[in-house]
Amino acid sequence: MNRRLCLAAAGATTLALAGCASRSPLDYAAERPRLELREYFNGKLVAHGIFTDRAGRVARRFVVHIDAHWEGDVGVLDEHFRFSDGEAQRRVWRLRRLGEGHYSGTAEDVVGEAQIQVAGNAMQLRYTLALPARGRVWHVQFDDWMVLIDDRVMLNRAVMSKFGIRLGEVTLAFTRL
Predict the structure, then answer these.
(1) Whole-number Å distance between alpha carbons of 73 and 101
(2) Contact 60/85 with Cβ under 8 angstroms?
(3) Which residues make Cβ contacts (< 8 Å) with residue 28, sequence separation at least 6?
(4) In contact, 123 and 143? CB cutoff 8 Å
(5) What is the Cα–Cα distance from 177 to 174, expressed in whole angstroms?
(6) What does the H/E/C string look like for the chain?
(7) pLDDT of residue 21
């Protein structure tokens, strides 16, 4: 009986700690400078990035040129990727403002809609990407966190996972031109 009680207490403690570990963009609501998507993602930007695997090894390097514009509450981010191995990709995001601090996003290789929340200087972007690899298309989840440093620079860290298992991370530094 004591063993079951100890196991139950350990499980409850683990769940409680996991709940404390989660974060929300609202945790950054007081941070400045304030991130306004329609202002930051408007015009030309460039981003330099890396993909690191589970072991932390840099598996890919890339540069992204972005042309962004807004028409009312709808924004278009036309992204052109160039990878260090010569591969080129294009993704066109369509963002839609839903209300204060909330947006949705779609792109051809995004499964369903991305959920976006902005508060203070931070943005969280969650989505499932249809990623071609090894002759198949894998649906992988991305949990992106972006933090505005100043009016020109924003840093981005995204964790990529499948079935809750961390596959790697994408790190980007955006610069407004």
Answers:
(1) 12
(2) yes
(3) 119, 120, 121, 122, 147
(4) no
(5) 10
(6) CHHHHHHHHHHHHHHHHHHHHCCCHHHHCCCCCCCCHHHHCCEEEEEEEEEEECCCCEEEEEEEEEEEEEECCEEEEEEEEEECCCCEEEEEEEEEEEECCEEEEECCCEEEEEEEEEECCEEEEEEEEEEEECCEEEEEEEEEEEEECCCCEEEEEEEEEECCEEEEEEEEEEEEC
(7) 59
Residues 6 or more apart in contact with residue 81 via CB below 8 angstroms: 62, 63, 64, 87, 88, 89, 90, 91
pTM of the model: 0.86
Q: How many residues does the chain have?
A: 177
In this predicted structure, what is the pLDDT of residue 22? 82
Share above pLDDT 90 across residues of the chain, in percent, rounded to a whole number: 86
Mean pLDDT of 149-175: 97
User: What pLDDT, in 10s, does the model give residues 12-30?
Assistant: 444 444 445 588 999 999 9
CB 160 within 8 A of CB 140: yes
33-59 pLDDT, tens digit each:
999 999 999 999 999 999 999 999 999
The pLDDT of 131-155, averaged and rounded, is 96
